Amino acid sequence: MIGARNGYTPRALFAGTEARSRLRIQWTTPAWLSVAGALLLSFVGIASISLTRPELATRQGAFLLIGIACALLVTFASPRTLRISCWLILAVALALLVFVLLPFVPRSIVTPRNGARAWINLGAADFQPSELAKIAFILCLAQWLAMRGSPRSLRALVVPLALFAVPVALIVLEPDLGSALLFLPTLVAMLIAAGTKKRFVATALVAGAIAAPIGYFAVLKPYQRARIDAIVAQVKGDTRYERDIGFQGWRAMRLVGAGGVFGNDREHAQALVRFNALPEEHNDMVFAVVSCRFGLIGGLTTLLASAAVAIGALGVAWVVRDGFSKLVAVGIGALLFAQMVVNIGMTIGLLPITGITLPFVSYGGSSLVACWTLVGLLVGIGVRPPTGGEKSAFDA
Asked: Is the preceding omega at residue 54 within 30 degrees of 0, hence cis?
């Protein structure tokens, strides 16, 4: 175990997590709240997709079954198994992220969409390596922090930041800025849960805020800057971008407003979505369809179900006693909640459009299966609590 002289607080964080201590099954766990929220969101997603893409709704139903099967499978993986295999999962994820960037890979295998090389064609469905990278990142960061203890110096943050920077850099190169952004809140939440000094986190956030204007000009592509300009104009009520870069955002807001309080009947909602010609209405902008069909009530239900998934994850983190399991639960809750906030924020005109899907609701096999896999990890952690007697996973 690394001592405090290397910037970590020494802790035997894996005590009580051996396989023999996990034979006891505890069925009462906050993870079931996440399962209930995920199921509700999945059914809302299928109902919304069926409004304009019935054939895709059928496929989404098949993806849901696969996702639930993956969730059931990973519930049998003990934290010890996850700790051993997480680095292999990360290696596979990084290899696939590099693979999609190779220029000589045939377009029949890696087909660019909207200018991004982010999907691998598997024939029956497409696979997005960034979804696997999110899972691997959470597991590996939790493993490292749990082994080393609470980071108490800047030196102790070198490896966590490297685990963050490598997959993010590869995803940005695709380019898929939206998916890359989700790693940041996950990293921050897990570092705080691990006992990182608050001033380190605050300093990093302030530095990021100061560097943001530089990144706007030096890093973002012209179309990405145009999206930010469009959202600023949209907030001001300026309609200059309504017919070009801001078209998607304006149409999404109109559909959200068209739902009123109680929504529209199926036929009327279909007509509204069709005549508004909202791009990606089954995918990134599915929340607009949910609100148009089910109104404010449906939108709030979606928010509450998403919150239930995150609260269930935090509940699991609260009750488990080993560091690895606690951090995995925190990372899952932070990732899914941040993804929900960004997607809904961009749909209702509060954030720039970044191509982020709404967890469990948007169409897409990779996203749905990955989200359900995360829920399965939560259940596996929750129903087999460690019995080693740890009182606090991370002490200062």
From this structure: no
- E strand residue ranges, the chain: 8-9, 120-121, 126-127, 150-151
**Res 216: pLDDT:** 64
Half-sphere exposure of 324 (CA within 13 A, CB side): 25
- Of 291, 273, 375, 392, the C-alpha closest to 39 is 375
At 173, list the tokens.
Answer: 């190169």
Is residue 136 over pLDDT 80? yes
pLDDT tens readout for residues 374-384 = 999 999 998 87
Report residue 385 as tokens. 């609590």
Q: How many other β-carbons are positioned within 10 Å of the β-carbon of residue 391?
A: 6
Q: Whole-angstrom Cα distance, residue 91 to residue 348? A: 37
- Distance CA(49)–CA(289), nearest Å, equals 8
For residues 370 and 131, give the distance between their C-alpha atoms in angstroms, rounded to a whole number.
6
- Please return the burial class of 254, using the count of CB atoms within 10 Å of its CB with bins 0-12, 13-18 and 19+: middle
pLDDT in tens, 186-234: 999 999 999 888 888 787 777 777 766 776 666 667 766 777 777 777 7
**DSSP 8-class letter at 29:** -
Question: Measured between alpha carbons, how far is residue 346 from residues 95, 252, 357 in Å?
Answer: 31, 9, 10
Residue 265's CB is within 10 A of a number of other CB atoms, namely 8
Q: How confident is the model at residue 395 (pLDDT cuts 50, 70, 90)?
A: very low
Summarize pLDDT for 265-301 with one digit per residue, the tens.
999 999 999 988 888 899 999 999 999 999 999 999 9
Radius of gyration of the chain, Cα coordinates, nearest whole angstrom:
21
The answer to whether the CB of 266 falls within 8 A of the CB of 230 is: no
In the structure encoding, which two tokens stand for residue 161, read together? Answer: 């930041």
Q: What residue segments make up the domains of the chain, in order of their start?
A: 27-383
Q: What does the DSSP 8-state code read for residue 116?
A: B
User: Nearest-CA neighbor of 356 among 256, 254, 286?
Assistant: 286
Closest CA to 126 of 151, 109, 143: 109
pLDDT in tens, 344-368: 998 988 888 887 899 999 999 999 9
The whole-number pLDDT of residue 63 equals 96
Q: Residue 215 corresponds to which tokens in the numbers above?
A: 């990144």
Task: Using a cut of 0.90, tell me whether the model's pTM lies above it.
Answer: no
